[in-house]
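User: quick one
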Amino acid sequence: MPDFLIAPDPSLPRLTRAVSGIDHNGAAVDLRVVEERPLTIFLNAQEIVTAMTIGDYPEELAIGYLLNQGMLHRDDTLTGVDYDEELDVVVIRTGRVTDYEEKLKKKTRTSGCAVGTVFGDMMETLEGLTLPTAEVRTSWLYGLAKQINTVPSLYLEAGAIHGSVLCRGDQPLVYMEDVGRHNAVDKIAGWMFRNAIDPGEHILYTTGRLTSEMVIKTASMGIPVLASRSGFTAWGVEIAREVELTLIGRMRGKRFVCLSGAERLVMDVDVDTIEDEGAKHRRKGAD
Amino acid sequence: MPDFLIAPDPSLPRLTRAVSGIDHNGAAVDLRVVEERPLTIFLNAQEIVTAMTIGDYPEELAIGYLLNQGMLHRDDTLTGVDYDEELDVVVIRTGRVTDYEEKLKKKTRTSGCAVGTVFGDMMETLEGLTLPTAEVRTSWLYGLAKQINTVPSLYLEAGAIHGSVLCRGDQPLVYMEDVGRHNAVDKIAGWMFRNAIDPGEHILYTTGRLTSEMVIKTASMGIPVLASRSGFTAWGVEIAREVELTLIGRMRGKRFVCLSGAERLVMDVDVDTIEDEGAKHRRKGAD
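Assistant: Done. Structure below.
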């Protein structure tokens, strides 16, 4: 079993619920389905957003969301992180006085799940950004995929959930899951902030598609490599090339496609030794 | 080939882009990836939202989005529907004077993709709602899945995209695709409004997960049956039961699970005659 710093805990009762129904034979079935609950995020006195989330790591989600929206700065000092489980509210407090009233007026609905993401602003944060040089060995990619897809997870337990994993070399470190795939990435951003992690030499693995927003988030987190089981959008590829992020998609079995930043790739493994993904493979898309 | 009223047109050059990269062998590959572009929706003089969309059926998307947000009413008369392709803007005009400034201040980030969805408001629209009685034959479900999964689509061409299909009996009628799965449903809502379709006796099929928002949208569209290849969230199931919507998920090959409204199901087919989904099956999740 890999030595994750944070791995999913499918046994947590708060995250799934047992429901009954019937199957294709008309027989009664019981299954576990993932929870989905609102979490309202405040930055100081201002209500920023209500996210629909599975409910774990609310503090990391709130901090990461605010960071990835540019509302919390890398050099901000947090003077309070208060989560109220009964009210489903997180309040993040900073020494700096904040007011995002104007920014909150602008609404962008992204391809996958963010509210209030201001693309113009997010693109601005990428201006002048230089992602660290790094190498990505293909042996790491294969090893990571195998570890991530086999470690116990809510996905394997209940399905209908996305995962994002912060990795370093061939080691998956922090595996976050959420009903919203952007929430999973935001939780990782929040964890990195709280633990003062240098993003260089890290790889972000996601089960979700490589859309513009996912690429922008990864780049603004300073992570040079983004890999996914899923496919690409044209704008996601375009932005990755602009910021020189290594973008790897359609990672299934021995296969993958790299559409940006291939110069970081080190092909150190004979692909004929890698098993292709069979029908038995349980990880499908979370959709 | 089924006789769709609207089917995907993967040959439209505006919807995909050719990109080059390398594959797992280090060999050069060319592939088509889906576009993702902003579309800003105005209701009369008010800017409502910017959606990231693949770009087809912008007028249906705008109308459906506004309907599903409760900003456009079923009995509204549209006095103008103006799409400007160069500006990526749609303006919907109504005889009724509209002002959603207060509503726009409230931001909810859902599990999958909607911005500015106000859950409280959406739940209110469901109060007192009675979905029509209807029957759903399992032979229809199997026939629909087969037709939808084999008709040429952007999904089969380029992947990384979601689909929603309005069906009646065993006939798929309108198949919309989009990078955002809620956009695909909104396009169907817009099409139904423009064509004055009675939602009773219809089935909505989606490739996406059965989250709270997807269930709320389907119910508020008046459609009594929602079916998906993907899984459930607990809140999605709970709302479906409250409004007595028939909710069918995990439809793959002969298998499915019905977690709400099973009284509408008519099991008219011997499941042993249905082929199970094999490894060759090309439709995976869009993630």
